[in-house]
């Protein structure tokens, strides 16, 4: 287990840093796991505005924190800030887990492993040889794309609003040398455009933050999922009470679906192990998520702090 600083009586701090972050179920999930294992940590959500990540990380270090999770929109900035990167984080150029170790900031990416564990254990979907349609090219999308390439995906179509970012991810996939084909696609403006990008896909991954705010019109309602492969699986990294509009639209078209809270669980379990050196109590963490997602609790607010520029 990670050592506690000399003289510390209180639990060591961990935090998820992002904007928005109020929706995050990481605080109750991790705090339940710390209570169950008797480990001396406490985990909070802190809203960190654009350009404020370094200030937030410095503040956590002053407070003697053990580390942090980093979420939208800071994963790429976290990779720049870390003084050491794991192989996965270096390849993806994105960090979702920071560990503060002997005065250094270590950066890890547990998103790809968490995503693939959910594919394996929950959806029983082997990505080897499959065609992936990936919506998004941000920090989470990068980690997922590189993990899928490492698992032998045949092709990844990167569909992103900002083409430069899509092209940068394609370059990373090709540079990984796994033999995965990769192509950047513009964000479609109409149904025929969506048919072109979705056609023949075996796995459709929604990895943008579009819809995270849960207000306004449903952007996914009319997506022509029926042009995907007959046995296609759809997954949305966004999770929350009431489920995902993206997955509801996919299910209406007959696709199998995998909810993003499974990725949350498994990426969190890996982060827990990095901070504590102890295997995470996954079944207990799953039961916490089930309770909160079913209950529709606005739990993030109760745990949230706010730091924005
Ligand atoms: N379930 C889990 O465990 C888990 C883990 C990680 C992340 N996530 C979720 O995954 C999502 C992405 O996270 P991230 O860290 O990758 O964020 P990020 O680095 O900020 O990337 C955001 C992505 O969303 C796209 N986007 C944002 N607004 C859009 C809009 N109005 N129309 C089209 N595209 C839009 C961005 O496109 P541009 O490049 O054009 O800006 C970019 O591709 C978030 O919702 C996050 O909560 C879930």
From TrEMBL:
Molecular function GO terms recorded: NADP binding; shikimate 3-dehydrogenase (NADP+) activity
Gene Ontology biological process terms, A to Z: amino acid biosynthetic process; aromatic amino acid family biosynthetic process; chorismate biosynthetic process; shikimate metabolic process
Lineage: Bacteria, Bacillati, Bacillota, Limnochordia, Limnochordales
PANTHER family per the UniProt record, alphabetical: BIFUNCTIONAL 3-DEHYDROQUINATE DEHYDRATASE_SHIKIMATE DEHYDROGENASE, CHLOROPLASTIC, SHIKIMATE DEHYDROGENASE
Annotated residues for binding of shikimate: 24-26, 71, 96, 111, 239, 267
GO cellular component, one term: cytosol
SUPFAM superfamilies in the cross-refs: Aminoacid dehydrogenase-like, N-terminal domain, NAD(P)-binding Rossmann-fold domains
Gene responsible for this protein: aroE
Protein name: Shikimate dehydrogenase (NADP(+))
Top-level taxon of the source organism: Bacteria
Family to which this protein belongs: Belongs to the shikimate dehydrogenase family.
Residue intervals of the Quinate/shikimate 5-dehydrogenase/glutamyl-tRNA reductase domain: 128-173
Keywords: Amino-acid biosynthesis, Aromatic amino acid biosynthesis, NADP, Oxidoreductase
Pathway: Metabolic intermediate biosynthesis; chorismate biosynthesis; chorismate from D-erythrose 4-phosphate and phosphoenolpyruvate: step 4/7
Subunit relationships: Homodimer.
Domain SDH C-terminal: 262-289
């Amino acid at each position: 287990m990670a050592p506690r600083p000399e003289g510390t009586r209180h639990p060591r701090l961990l935090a998820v840093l992002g904007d928005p972050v109020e929706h995050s179920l990481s605080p109750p999930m991790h705090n339940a796991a710390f209570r169950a294992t008797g480990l001396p940590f406490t985990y909070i959500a802190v809203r960190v505005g654009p350009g404020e990540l370094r200030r937030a990380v410095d503040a956590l270090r002053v407070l003697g924190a053990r580390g942090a999770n980093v979420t939208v929109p800071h994963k790429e900035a976290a990779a720049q800030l870390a003084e050491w990167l794991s192989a996965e984080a270096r390849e993806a150029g994105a960090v979702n887990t920071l560990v503060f170790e002997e005065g250094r900031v270590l950066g890890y990416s547990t998103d790809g492993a968490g995503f693939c564990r959910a594919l394996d254990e929950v959806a029983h979907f082997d990505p080897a040889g499959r065609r992936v349609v990936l919506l998004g090219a941000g920090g989470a999308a990068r980690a997922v794309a590189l993990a899928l390439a490492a698992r032998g995906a045949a092709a990844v179509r990167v569909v992103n609003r900002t083409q430069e970012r899509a092209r940068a991810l394609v370059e990373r996939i090709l540079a990984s040398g796994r033999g995965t084909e990769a192509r950047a696609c513009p964000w479609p403006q109409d149904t025929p455009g969506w048919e072109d990008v979705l056609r023949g896909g075996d796995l459709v991954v929604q990895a943008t933050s579009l819809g995270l705010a849960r207000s306004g019109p449903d952007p996914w309602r009319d997506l022509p999922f029926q042009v995907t492969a007959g046995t296609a699986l759809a997954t949305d990294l966004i999770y929350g009470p009431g489920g995902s509009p993206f997955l509801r639209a996919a299910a209406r078209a007959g696709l199998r679906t995998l909810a993003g809270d499974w990725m949350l669980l498994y990426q969190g379990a890996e982060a827990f192990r990095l901070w504590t050196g102890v295997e995470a109590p996954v079944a207990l963490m799953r039961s916490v998520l089930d309770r909160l997602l079913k209950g529709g609790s606005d739990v993030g607010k109760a745990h949230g702090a706010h730091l924005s520029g």
